[in-house]
Amino acid sequence: MSRLSESMKHELKQIQPSSILKFNQEISQIPDMVKLTIGEPDFNTPDHVKQAAIRSIENNESHYTDSRGTDGLRKAASKFLHDKYNVTYDPETQILVTTGATEGIFSSLTAMLNPGDTVIIPTPIFPLYIPDTLLNGAKPIFLDTSDNGFILSPEKLQATIEANKDTVKAVVLNFPSNPTGVTYSRSDLQAIADVIKQYDIFVLSDEIYSELTYGERHVSMGELLPEQTILLNGVSKSHAMTGWRIGLVCGPVDVITEIGKVHQFAITSATANAQAAAEEAFKNGPDDGVAMRKIYQQRRDLLLAGLKEAGFECASPKGAFYLFAKIPANLNQDSVAFCYELAKEAKVAVIPGASFGAGGEGYVRISYAASTEDLKKAVSRIQKFVDAH
């Protein structure tokens, strides 16, 4: 007798465990490894945020909250998003607090998709959107952006929508981008918005790295196309709170209502003291990310210079904390094989570009959410590895 849902078995067979986590786990067994693999801030959560969580525990705030999130957190998040990105969301009806942006992505796609729908996913991209699409019986349509500086062109988007307009339900945007560090300017986004507004489709806009931009202010798709945008954000990257698992989903009232149903049945509500911490982060630490951003930029510049000297070309990183580096032509162009060689011989761990979809092969993703000391050590080891090959 089958132990799995018959309707789900087909979808599950299409999905494999995360290749990023698998690779990271395997190379972690190698002694003296410099790991530039996982996208997690190496900073501590700000003290005032931690104290807010402690007070919440001491005040016995240990019960279920409103499934949408506490009033205080939703109001603080609404003000933060408005002040930072000129987006307007009613905290009562248009903001949902999720257990990280990860759950927000899953709940949003689950509420949105029907079997047979299609979702346009520009690549290279953080791969989570792909299994979530497949689990809901929908089909991803991949658009390789590597020939356009890793930016989705409005022309390619429009042609793809037109070719699939009977099935397209949504377009995914992830910016600043994981894995490339590339982000969209206001004019880039406006051109995409002008295409999307011609169709009855959504844009799932994952802007979790919005506070980590270098040289230009982040522009949100929620400002340009509010009636069709499902905006994802949170405190994981802006306040070094990945383990607290607090994300936000924002959008039109009717859409958030339906996403809220999936969210409620899946998790009931986010953890009470983590919500208290996030409220403090948004309310009294809106610029906590600024100091981190300055250090990230210094690390980015250090890594860029070192990789350039070693013969790597990098996409122009203007946000997040990743470099997407092209493997030099004289080295193994299979990104998985290259990364294993680098890990075993040079004891530097980076993620194969192939993990991020079409356009990623021949590249590696390098996280500079690591200490300056580790980055200097990594650059020295990479340079020696390249010289030896």
Automatic annotation (TrEMBL):
Protein origin, superkingdom: Bacteria
Entry keywords, A to Z: Aminotransferase, Pyridoxal phosphate, Transferase
InterPro entries cross-referenced by the UniProt entry: Aminotransferase_I/II_large, AspAT/PAT-like, NHTrfase_class1_PyrdxlP-BS, PyrdxlP-dep_Trfase, PyrdxlP-dep_Trfase_major, PyrdxlP-dep_Trfase_small
UniProt-recorded Gene Ontology molecular function terms: transaminase activity
Aminotransferase class I/classII large domain: residues covered: 32-382
Keyword Nucleotide-binding: no
SUPFAM superfamilies: PLP-dependent transferases
Gene3D superfamilies referenced in this protein's UniProt entry, alphabetically: Aspartate Aminotransferase, domain 1 (3.90.1150.10), Type I PLP-dependent aspartate aminotransferase-like (Major domain) (3.40.640.10)
Protein EC: 2.6.1.-
Top EC category: transferase
Record CDD domains: AAT_like
Entry cofactors: pyridoxal 5'-phosphate
PANTHER family reported for this sequence: AMINOTRANSFERASE, ASPARTATE AMINOTRANSFERASE
Record family assignment: Belongs to the class-I pyridoxal-phosphate-dependent aminotransferase family.
Protein name: Aminotransferase
Species name: Secundilactobacillus hailunensis
